[in-house]
Amino acid sequence: xxxxxxxxxxxYEWPYISIVAMDSxxxxxxxxxxxxxxxxxEAYVAAVRALLAMSPxxxxxxxxxxxxxGALNENILSxxxxxxxxxxxxxxxxxxxxxxxxxxxxxxxxxxxxxLMNNMLYANSKEEFDTALSTIEETYTxxxxxxxxxxxxxxxxxxxxxxxxxxxEGTCGKTSNNPAEQNHSGIIAHLGGxxxxxxxxxxxxxxx
Length: 208
Hints:
By secondary structure, the protein is α+β, with helices and mostly antiparallel strands. It is built from eight helices and five strands, in the order βββαββααααααα. The strands form two sheets. The chain has a three-stranded antiparallel sheet, with helices on both faces. Helix 3 packs antiparallel against helix 4. The longest helix has 14 residues, at 126-139. The chain starts with a strand and ends with a helix.
């Protein structure tokens, strides 16, 4: 589970970054954390590569699922990036429905479209997903702008549709990036005021 915390939390606007993994009991564990100079894909790649380099008991092939926000895509798993050949890439459902999709659709993002897209997102079966997609097509017949975007999203259902995610080995029954978000809440509580100071104070508090 990969995620950046809001960069505005410290004086230099360098975001906190964490990698959270599920243990054998299905409980979330922070396995790597730090402060990045910028919120870029390269920072995620560097963090994952550093983690694997420091974990000789785990190989790249052992990683079976990677959860991230909508700013990333499947290319992040390629040999040129994280080099995770067996991993499934999964978009966080909350980021999709509350950030990425509203921005993509702009003025077209209405309560009706939001509800219909969520039916695709949280579909419990292929039949439910196909029904949700058909309903959108019927509702927006003639609106090529919306339908073109919806069809492109539907082509990537393997990255977000609930019924597919639950079949993947390594997800531990998760369909969102909640473990990373929960860690963020814990970090804010743990670091307190250090979050809003110079990053050196933040790093010191993380190590303490």
